[in-house]
Amino acid sequence: MNLFKDxxxxxxxxxxxxxxxxxxxxxxxxxxxxxxxxxxxxATTCVLIGSNxxxxxxxxxxxxxxxxxxxxxxxxxxxxxxxxxxxxxxPTSLYNALGIFIPLIVVNCIVLGRAEAFASKSGIxxxxxDALGMGLGFTLALTLLGGTREFLTSGSLFDVKIIxxxxxxFMLPSNAPGAFIILGCFxxxxxHLNFRRSVKRGEVYIPPQGxxxxxxRICDIGDE
Length: 224
Fold this sequence. Notes:
Blueprint: H1 2-8, H2 24-29, H3 34-58, H4 67-89, H5 92-98, H6 109-117, H7 124-154, E1 156-157, E2 160-161, H8 176-201, H9 213-216
Antiparallel strand pairs: 1-2
Helix pairs in contact: 1-7, 3-4, 3-6, 3-7, 4-6
């Protein structure tokens, strides 16, 4: 049951985008269509899995005072590998669209946060499940946001025209203000669903515990 919880929590209960509000830069910047959202999510998931695996494997060998620099080096290595693979095998349009946001995965707080908060304290298998769940939740959120923006802009989905009579693009969803508005609607809908579920159970909805500044400690690294 604990293994399933490690995997499933990132998909809904602790979704990095819809609950924890992490990785907002790529979430808002590259999700102007579903393909870009899916590509960014898959790339981040691969980095998450690789970095969590290595961090968990080396957790007892890395001195605590230099753990964050070590984690960044590990993450940067996997980001470089993923970037080269995408440059070689991914469609050119997708690689160009993601652009600088691929190397910026190095500083994505989702990746570094999972390394510090989970992988450095857990076994290899649990760390991989955590990375897979968080990555899947991130990918689903980006793809859903990108698909919604793409459909509201041009009536298409995954570059396939769904409404052929839609000839004039509606530019608001494809630009930054539209991204903020649509993401806000998603957050409101998720909070509403969580609230309704809590009411049916006779419970009070409480946000995920233990995933906040009190337990992150990344900002305290300069004081050590």
